[in-house]
Write a structure and sequence with these properties.
The complex is a heterotrimer of chains A (315), B (268) and C (341). Chain A has helices spanning 6-41, 51-60, 63-69, 80-113, 119-131, 134-147, 151-157, 165-190, 195-202, 207-218, 220-236, 239-245, 258-262, 271-281, 284-308; one strand spanning 313-314. Chain A is an all-alpha fold and 315 residues long. Chain B has 268 residues and is mainly alpha-helical. Chain B is built from 13 helices and 1 strand; from the N terminus they run αααααααααααααβ. Chain B has helices at 2-7, 11-47, 50-83, 89-101, 104-114, 118-126, 135-159, 164-171, 176-187, 189-204, 208-213, 224-233, 237-261; one strand spanning 265-266. In chain B, helix 2 crosses helix 13 (237-261), helix 3 crosses helix 7 and helix 12 (224-233) runs antiparallel to helix 13 (237-261). Helices cover 25% and strands 33% of the residues of chain C. Chain C has 8 helices and 20 strands. Chain C has helices at residues 39-47, 89-99, 104-118, 133-146, 163-180, 191-197, 215-220, 225-230; strands at residues 2-10, 15-23, 28-32, 54-59, 62-63, 74-77, 151-155, 183-188, 200-205, 208-213, 237-242, 245-248, 251-254, 260-266, 273-275, 285-295, 300-305, 309-314, 325-329, 336-339. A 6-stranded mixed beta sheet of chain C has the order 6-7-8-3-9-10, with helices on both faces. Chain C has a 5-stranded antiparallel beta sheet with strand order 13-12-11-14-20, with no helix packed on it. Chain C has a 5-stranded antiparallel beta sheet with strand order 15-19-16-17-18, with no helix packed on it. The longest helix of chain C is centred in the middle third of the chain and has 18 residues, at 163-180. At the A-B interface, helix 1, helix 4, helix 5, helix 6 and helix 8 of A face helix 2, helix 3, helix 4, helix 5 and helix 7 of B. Strand 1 of chain A pairs antiparallel with strand 1 (265-266) of chain B, so a sheet runs across the interface.
């Protein structure tokens, strides 16, 4: 007898189905969470110097160097190099982000509002910068400034772009952080109805006033998200900086300007480059200590991004 | 004239368009300087070398394989992040996103540390698959970076579909799985395809993570972005520049393909 | 006074063609037309969003086409009102005054006045997101009128409101226009809405102006079939006229008219008369029967068959039922005739 109403059976199976369904999808998210957490947390013991490492260093290092290296986390806080690098890593991305925002927000506005010929090509250009390998970006910069069109220019100006902190490192971290920030800023402006500006202008505002008093406040959270995005990206830059600037630790003090010395960023590297250099050098604990600092900074900024609920797209 | 510029407030659009054109020019020169340096004849020479194509195909197949793995994990994970709400969601999402915000060089260091540990030591013991300085290491690096990226993009792709379609489908008696496969996936198809291409391009661009973790062995792990670094250290400028051109072409092709599919791929 | 002279514009797929329109000072002009007729686009040309191909827009004799939007001294209320979501009601209203850099006291005085005029004092500190449709509309109007513009452009100002509110607001719009003596141009697609406010009506279709005239004139003399149908004349049919009689659809109507050949004839449903006694044979009176009766709020709609389908609106109770034979009169004075396009 098929007296059972089919809806009843359907309802019952649907609730059971919901649990399975949810747990199925959660399992993938959970896997990613666990993988990521395990990846970062399980390496905490790298900070502690093991017997084997001490023995190896008895062969490879000498004197006081060895003493410090055998401390917890390579005794990184006792090293002037660390503090200078931290200084540099906090300073350069801020300057980069500032320049990127000042240039990028008007650019994003122009790309979002005005009819510019070949917009599709422009969008492909900026989005492909985001997926060009960092080594290529670094190489492009090197070729552009040292082998190509800008060589004569920098000879005349009398300073070098490559292998320098001030134009060089900022330029290297600028390329990718600008492209990423631009995507977020453009998304923010695309989300604002141009009608607001038309109305503001019909009420007598100039274009700049209409932008400042209407579009800017409305798109504020998106713009802030773009700034954080650009900053995070500048902070995480490794490839382009390594290629374009190399490492500064071993360079003689004469190579650095007085300004760099006053700011305590001479003979210092970008933290990500420093991690690489230290681990290659055999100072694994030191390198991981720096890595954890970067992880904490990155985690905080990505948490801020999630709180703001930002948007940005690859066109 | 200048007076008119200030008085009529045209300076703002003029500035915005000027900056846009300036940055576009900068990026164009950045990309084009390789061709200017290398010249057409040399480009052709390097493009006909088997060493180039061997590296190219290595890049293509490794990034394709790691993209597949990323998609398998990333699509359901992105759906869960998009649809289900759970406590401390921002914290969980931040941890999941860590591999893409932290410098990839750091990821390499951490992967270097992790492969001697629990699941990996068992795998290398029992199955004789050693994950480290070989192509498996390359795949692991690419997977680690792109999986989080993929989940991000997929979350955005699913976010763009209003949940009401799922409610309607379920109200008509379809099960949750049926709704997902018959309604959500087809609707998200374009976004997923676009994101897939971006993920693939990102995987093919991965280099920094390999630096500390995998190292180089010619013909085995030298995928193109890494090979650029190797040959740069070897001083082979022609190879370096021509491979950079190939990388740029790959990226531009991928992005053009994404545009042609018509989906939009959200980063956040 | 706004004069639009031979305005031609091309917006990739949509064209405005030879728009000639003069709106006098203090006149309430309604741009009427179906969706996609180009009314909104015309408004946007006056606002200054696009550059025209040919023609000119003159406000008080001055050609404004080389001017930017902000220099034209117009007030524009778009369809979704576009209240600035980052400013509260008071700030929204003061926005145009601040843009003009008026002194502070002046700004607050005019803002107060506007708020009092529109009776929106109770929401003055709220953000636009938390307002109802009618409140939003008042704020948008207040923002537009606070600067004392000569020209007010309203793009479908009433279509986001519900029916009751629409009636109230259309009265208010009319009153505001009388009070401010500004020139209003109001876009809508609804004939009733236009009838409630307009001094004159400009009917648009497919990027062209079809007819400009007062409501009564347009109703009595539609320019062509499109206008006739758009104004809900209904009962429109094709016929042949010889100057005295109009033949078509199996009936013969007597009316002297200047047209000959194929014409479009029509009569508004409220002018169709039903006669109880048998007067068949009299001028313009025909035998028919009732097909259906549809009660409406203010009248009763009759579907009639007199050889062709007719609709009639009658007020009050008429003792007929479906199927009853009736006598239908189409009075010659209400008969609308127009050439076939």
């Amino acid at each position: 007898m098929s007296g059972n109403p089919p809806t009843m059976a359907g309802t019952r199976s649907a609730t059971g189905d919901r649990t399975i369904f949810k747990s199925f999808f959660y399992s993938f998210t959970g896997f990613m969470f666990l993988f990521s957490a395990y990846l970062f947390l399980s390496n905490l013991d790298q900070l502690v110097v093991t017997e084997a490492a001490i023995k190896t260093r008895e062969i490879t290092s000498w004197g006081e160097d060895r003493e410090v290296m055998n401390m917890f986390a390579g005794g990184f806080w006792r090293d002037a190099y660390f503090w200078k690098s931290l200084n540099l890593t906090l300073m350069v991305p801020v300057i980069t982000t500032l320049i990127a925002s000042l240039v990028g927000i008007p650019t994003a506005y122009a790309l979002s509002r005005y009819r510019i010929p070949g917009k599709a090509a422009i969008e492909v250009l900026f989005s492909s910068v985001m997926v060009i390998p960092a080594s290529s970006v670094g190489l492009c910069l090197i070729v552009m400034f040292n082998y190509g069109p800008f060589w004569n220019l920098q000879q005349q100006l009398g300073f070098r772009f490559a292998h320098s902190i001030f134009p060089g490192m900022i330029l290297a971290s600028f390329v990718l952080s600008f492209a990423l920030g631009l995507s977020a800023w453009k998304a923010a402006f695309d989300g604002v109805n141009p009608r607001f500006e038309h109305v503001a202008r019909s009420l007598g505002s100039s274009r700049w006033r209409a932008f400042r008093t209407v579009t800017l406040p409305i798109s504020k959270s998106g713009l802030v998200a773009g700034v954080i995005l650009a900053w995070t990206r500048a902070m995480a830059e490794f490839g382009a900086v390594l290629f374009f600037c190399g490492t500064f630790r071993e360079l003689p003090p004469a190579r650095f300007s007085d300004l760099e010395k006053v700011l305590h960023i001479d003979q210092a590297d970008f933290l990500s480059v420093a991690i690489w250099a230290q681990i290659e050098y055999g100072n694994v604990e030191y390198g991981f200590a720096l890595a954890f600092i970067l992880v904490i900074i990155g985690g905080l900024s990505v948490y801020a991004m999630h709180r703001i609920g930002a948007k940005g797209y690859i066109w | 004239m200048q007076n008119a510029l200030w008085q009529r407030g045209t300076w703002w659009p003029a500035l915005a368009i000027f900056l846009a054109l300036a940055t576009i020019t900068f990026y164009l020169i950045l990309i084009a300087s390789n061709w200017i340096y290398l010249g057409l004849g040399d480009t052709f020479y390097f493009f006909t070398q088997p060493r180039m194509w061997q590296r190219f195909w290595l890049t293509v197949w490794t990034s394709t394989v790691s993209t597949c793995f990323s998609l398998i994990i990333g699509i359901p994970a992105g759906y869960a992040l998009s649809r289900f709400s759970f406590s401390c969601r921002n914290v969980f999402a931040s941890v999941i996103d860590l591999p893409i915000v932290v410098s990839p060089a750091v990821i390499g260091a951490f992967l270097f540390g992790i492969t001697t540990r629990f699941p990996f030591d068992l795998i290398s013991e029992h199955y004789n698959i050693y994950i480290g300085r070989n192509v498996y290491g390359v795949l692991l690096v690419q997977f680690t970076v792109t999986c989080a990226f993929c989940a991000r993009l997929m979350k955005a792709a699913f976010d763009s579909i209003p949940p009401k379609f799922e409610s309607v489908s379920r109200s008509l008696g379809a099960s949750n799985f049926r709704t997902f496969f018959k309604v959500v996936l087809p609707m998200a198809k374009n976004g997923i395809m676009a994101s897939m291409i971006v993920v693939w391009a990102r995987a093919a661009a991965e280099w920094e993570g390999l630096m500390l973790f995998v190292g180089a062995s010619e013909g085995k792990t030298d995928i193109m972005p890494f090979a650029i670094y190797l040959d740069w250290n070897g001083g082979m400028m022609g190879w370096v520049v021509s491979m950079t051109i190939v990388c740029i072409l790959m990226a531009v092709t991928a992005m053009t393909a994404m545009r042609l599919i018509g989906g939009k791929s959200h980063v956040w | 006074m706004i004069e639009i002279q031979a305005l031609n514009g091309n917006l990739g797929g949509f064209r405005l063609q030879d728009i000639d329109l003069t709106v006098n000072d203090g006149e309430y002009m309604v741009l009427l037309g179906p969706t996609g007729a180009g009314k909104t686009v015309l408004i946007e040309y006056i606002v200054g969003m696009y550059k025209q191909d040919r023609g000119a827009i003159l406000i008080d004799g001055q050609d404004v086409t080389p001017l930017y939007t902000e220099e034209r001294n117009i007030a524009y209320v778009p369809q979704d009102y576009a209240l600035f979501p980052n400013l509260n009601v008071e700030k929204n209203i003061a926005y145009g005054l601040e843009a003009r850099r008026l002194p502070k006291e002046e700004i607050s005085r005019i803002t107060e006045e506007t708020i009092a005029n529109l009776g929106i004092g109770y929401i003055r500190h709220r953000m636009p997101l938390n307002l109802s449709g009618g409140e939003k509309q008042r704020v948008a109007l207040g923002r537009a009128l606070a600067t004392g513009p000569k020209v007010v452009l309203l793009d479908e100002p009433l279509s986001a409101l519900d029916e009751n509110l629409r009636a109230i607001m259309s009265h208010e719009l009319r009153a505001l226009q009388r009070k401010t003596h500004a020139t209003f141009i109001h876009v809508c697609h609804n004939f009733e809405e236009a009838a409630a406010v307009a001094d004159r009506i400009a009917i648009m279709n497919e990027g062209r102006l079809v007819q400009i005239d007062t409501l009564e004139a347009v109703k009595a003399n539609p320019q062509n079939e499109f206008v006739a149908r758009f104004l809900k004349t209904q009962n429109v049919f094709e016929a042949v006229s010889d100057g005295k009689t109009i033949k078509g659809n199996g009936i013969v109507l007597n009316k002297k008219n200047p047209l000959t050949g194929t014409v479009i004839a029509g009569i508004r449903p409220e002018h169709v008369r039903l006669q109880s006694e048998n007067r068949i044979g009299e001028t313009n009176t025909f035998a028919g029967h009732i097909v259906d009766i549809v009660p409406k709020p203010h009248f009763i709609e009759y579907r009639l068959d007199v050889g062709m389908e007719l609709t009639a609106f009658l007020i009050g109770d008429v003792p007929y039922g479906p199927g009853d034979a009736v006598c239908v009169e189409l009075p010659a004075e209400h008969l609308i005739l127009t050439g076939k396009n």
